[in-house]
Amino acid sequence: MKNFYIIDFDSTFTQVEALDELARISLKKHPDKEAIFKKIEDYTNLAMEGKLSFSESLAQRVKLLEANEDHLKQLITRLKKKVSASFSRNAEFFKNHADEVLIVSGGFKEFITPVVSQYHIKKENIYANTFVTTGDGKIIDYDHANPLSEEGGKVKLMQQMNLEGDLYGIGDGYSDFQLRESGLIKKFYAFTENISRESIVEKADHVTPSFDEFLYVNNLPRAISYPKNRILCLIIGDVPEQSIELLKKDGFSIRHKADFEEKYIADVHMLLLADGEKVDPVKLKQAVKLKTLGYLGTAKNKIDIAACTEQGIVVFDDIKHNPRNLDFIPKRMRDFMNTGTTYMSSNFPNLQLPRIEKSHRLIHIHKNVPGIMAQVNTVFAEHNININGQFLMTNPNIGYVITDINAQYDEQLFKSLKKIEHTIKFRVLY
């Protein structure tokens, strides 16, 4: 059976509600603009939460817009910069699955098509409303004959299309859930990267904080190997909000606690500590998934840095208590998780490198003993892997190698790399 992916546009494919943005453009000079913005946003939210019929919400919003085709051009420029990050980084997926991806939206083709077409989505697979304009380009109405302008419009459209295959719906609003309620789709994924509506989340088959998560749970090709929302970042102590916000904005799963609670030890991937905090050496040893530790102060006598090195944990700390390190330390942690960069690490060889497109990046951390690199490259040769680039740095204790490959691979490759004697940690970045 063929799979089809039914994707919403507003607050899903893009970070914003397009009609709300259009209003901010078209009513920019209106004396009562703030009051009208509020009305439009209220109509949007009432419909998304299932508290007002979609047709009534749409009619009221279009009436308030006072927009024209010039405003639409400005909107399109804005929306192209507001594509949701996880959709943007998975452009390759849309290119390779162009026949299976459908954009189904209560928004309007006039602004949806120019935005999603950049991502290899076929124009014939874009289903949305259309505006009615006057001869001078003023928007006065919309096509009421389009089923997507009606309450339950997505359900009506999909019934008419009668697609043969398994359908998966991704969206943030009530009209997306209605597809699941109707039985037309196999699963409904509540998309919460931009907004989380409790009334929708509680009805979803699965909550997907990013498109990476959707691809991951469905075992589909993706830009990053492991969704960031599954990477647990534990923050301990009196850490400033700006440090926390930087990591939260990047999509990591954040937990802010007063101390290193037992329940997080087995699953924590990142650890950020306030100045003065300590970590019990026993807990540190048990944190087998921990990859990086940031310390907002000097970690000396607070953290067993030698033990971190032995476990393959990259440490970033602030020896001089520089105020800029409120951002600098979290940024170093973020960059390590995203690209493998160890620049300014306290215990690892400093390696700074760019992301290489259309490659898979593998990280191998090992004890610095002779012959390891020969064994690593023998494994790649045995699996017929072509290497795009390889970066190696060592210090007296460890070797840190990043390898970019362009070939498809199987899980056996990873098992072979992990089995190499003196391996400390192995990770696939993307």
Automatic annotation (TrEMBL):
EC numbers for this chain: 1.1.1.399, 3.1.3.3
Keywords from UniProt, A to Z, are: Amino-acid biosynthesis, Hydrolase, Magnesium, Metal-binding, Serine biosynthesis
Q: Where is the ACT domain?
A: 361-430
Keyword hit for Heme: no
GO CC terms for this protein? Answer: cytoplasm
The biological process GO terms on file are:
L-serine biosynthetic process
| Physiological role | Catalyzes the reversible oxidation of 3-phospho-D-glycerate to 3-phosphonooxypyruvate, the first step of the phosphorylated L-serine biosynthesis pathway. Also catalyzes the reversible oxidation of 2-hydroxyglutarate to 2-oxoglutarate.
What protein name is recorded for this chain? Answer: D-3-phosphoglycerate dehydrogenase
Q: Which organism is it from?
A: Pedobacter metabolipauper
